[in-house]
Amino acid sequence: MPSNEAEEVLEILWIKTEEEGLSAVRKEDLLSADYDLESALDELAEEGSVEVKGGNVRLTEKGKGEARDIIRRHRLAERLLVDVLEMAEERVEEAACRFEHALPRGVDESVCTLLGHPRLCPDGNPIPPGRCCEEGREKIERLISPLTELEVGCEGRIAYITSRRHERLQRLMAMGIVPGLPVRLLQTFPSYVIEVEETQIALDAEIADEIYVRCERH
Question: Which of 2, 33, 53, 68 can bridge 6 by disulfide, Cβ–Cβ 3.0-4.6 Å?
Answer without folding.
Answer: 2
